[in-house]
Design a protein that fits this description.
The chain starts with a helix and ends in a 20-residue tail after the last strand. It is α/β, with parallel strands linked by helices. It has six helices and seven strands.
Amino acid sequence: MKKKKTILLSFMIIAISCAFSFNISSADEAYRYVSPIEVVEYIELNEPLCLLDVQSKNEFEKHHIVGSTPTYAYPVATRPDKQKLDVAVDEIKDKKFPIVLICPRGGGAARRSYDYLKSVGIREERLFILWGGIEGWNYTRYFESAEEKNKTISSFDSWIISKR
């Protein structure tokens, strides 16, 4: 009897896990993700790329990817948050390079940014979310803090890591 309960419990856990995984993957299928290693490859190949960081100002100052541009739009939940992305839209709308959205964990703020950028005319094939967000980024040679960053760079030069 105890063995049957254990087997039944195991099947229930597996079924719940599968259902939970299905819901997560279904929600994520509406968005395009890029892995940290793919971003590193773009950087190292000197390919044009826009790294748009939506972290809060405090978080951005603690750590961000070299060349990323802050918007301080986190959590991108209200109209004023989304309006912080509008400056970026004006600069990148007519370009062709990929746009990688960076938030703390690659979740809700990045998805809301993705949706907003789509709604204002950025083509979806250009939009990507950094998988795992800044927390999933483990390439320390591409990390910097705001204190270390040279502030003489013009604001939009940092948006495009490489220009062709």
